[in-house]
């Protein structure tokens, strides 16, 4: 599943096309969740990202694309995988595959709060800490994947951040010391930008300290379990990562 930094890369690739209010000349694909004719001959006013969502904004509505587990995209290329949504512009083609697509009516700002987006300029640590304190009995491994608190954080970032701050994933929010709570919030953003850098360099997996690893950097054995309410695969070191009670 693409995490927030991967969606930023998609947005940057499209920004590099230097499109200025491009008109949609043709709409193709198997999508059934939107009226494709609604997009035809309409001008795109902006491309945005929020967390794991890619947003194509028109006057009065927005197309939201969620890549789920196996979604992909191609720009000015195509492949044999069934096309979910294709947009033909004057000089470019945007193709989206194996993804969830919705149409959001009205102002996109009414749907999203960028203060919780780990990649956004509007990111606000105080707001995130405020939301954390409203859910004291949630495990840290679950809260990091809550998109209303850490928009854009996925399973890789979750595992790596918890090792980076040396916190056991079964620690509950209420048991985390104040300094560790602040560190959690700060490193969720810091690691997301490291993720972005490494992804662009094609060195992301080379920098994993616990995710899909058998040993941590200190040569301790890595535990691998599906834990928390999300039941996502979690990698952690019981010697390096402290469980706060």
TrEMBL record:
<comment type="similarity">
    <text>Belongs to the FPG family.</text>
</comment>
<feature type="domain" description="Formamidopyrimidine-DNA glycosylase H2TH DNA-binding">
    <location>
        <begin position="119"/>
        <end position="197"/>
    </location>
</feature>
<keyword id="KW-0511">Multifunctional enzyme</keyword>
<keyword id="KW-0326">Glycosidase</keyword>
<protein>
    <submittedName>
        <fullName>Endonuclease</fullName>
    </submittedName>
</protein>
<dbReference type="GO" id="GO:0016829">
    <property type="term" value="F:lyase activity"/>
</dbReference>
<dbReference type="InterPro" id="IPR015886">
    <property type="entry name" value="H2TH_FPG"/>
</dbReference>
<keyword id="KW-0378">Hydrolase</keyword>
<dbReference type="InterPro" id="IPR035937">
    <property type="entry name" value="FPG_N"/>
</dbReference>
<keyword id="KW-0234">DNA repair</keyword>
<keyword id="KW-0540">Nuclease</keyword>
<dbReference type="InterPro" id="IPR010979">
    <property type="entry name" value="Ribosomal_uS13-like_H2TH"/>
</dbReference>
<feature type="domain" description="Formamidopyrimidine-DNA glycosylase catalytic">
    <location>
        <begin position="2"/>
        <end position="100"/>
    </location>
</feature>
<dbReference type="GO" id="GO:0008270">
    <property type="term" value="F:zinc ion binding"/>
</dbReference>
<dbReference type="GO" id="GO:0008534">
    <property type="term" value="F:oxidized purine nucleobase lesion DNA N-glycosylase activity"/>
</dbReference>
<dbReference type="GO" id="GO:0003906">
    <property type="term" value="F:DNA-(apurinic or apyrimidinic site) endonuclease activity"/>
</dbReference>
<keyword id="KW-0255">Endonuclease</keyword>
<keyword id="KW-0456">Lyase</keyword>
<dbReference type="GO" id="GO:0006284">
    <property type="term" value="P:base-excision repair"/>
</dbReference>
<keyword id="KW-0238">DNA-binding</keyword>
<dbReference type="GO" id="GO:0003684">
    <property type="term" value="F:damaged DNA binding"/>
</dbReference>
<dbReference type="Pfam" id="PF06831">
    <property type="entry name" value="H2TH"/>
</dbReference>
<keyword id="KW-0227">DNA damage</keyword>
<dbReference type="InterPro" id="IPR012319">
    <property type="entry name" value="FPG_cat"/>
</dbReference>
């Amino acid at each position: 599943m693409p995490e927030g930094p991967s969606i930023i890369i998609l947005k940057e690739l499209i920004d590099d096309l230097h499109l200025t209010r491009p008109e949609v000349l043709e709409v193709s694909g198997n999508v059934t969740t939107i009226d494709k004719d609604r997009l035809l001959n309409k001008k795109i006013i902006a491309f945005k990202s929020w967390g794991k969502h890619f947003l194509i904004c028109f006057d009065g509505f927005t197309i939201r694309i969620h890549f789920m587990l196996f979604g992909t995209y191609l720009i000015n290329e195509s492949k044999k995988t069934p096309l979910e949504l294709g947009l033909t512009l004057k000089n470019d083609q945007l193709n989206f595959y194996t993804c969830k697509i919705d149409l959001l009516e009205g102002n996109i700002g009414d749907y999203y709060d960028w203060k919780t987006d780990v990649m956004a300029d509007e990111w606000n640590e105080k707001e995130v800490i405020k939301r954390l304190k409203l859910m004291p009995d949630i495990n840290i491994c679950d809260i990091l994947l809550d998109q209303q608190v850490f928009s854009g954080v996925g399973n890789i970032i979750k595992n790596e951040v918890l090792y980076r701050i040396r916190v056991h994933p079964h620690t509950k929010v209420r048991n985390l010391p104040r300094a560790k709570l602040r560190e959690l919030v700060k490193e969720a953003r810091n690691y997301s930008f490291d993720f972005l850098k490494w992804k662009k360099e094609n060195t992301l997996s080379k920098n994993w300290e616990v995710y899909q690893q058998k040993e941590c950097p200190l040569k301790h054995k890595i535990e691998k379990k599906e834990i928390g309410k999300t039941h996502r695969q979690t990698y952690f070191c019981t010697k390096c990562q402290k469980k706060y009670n």
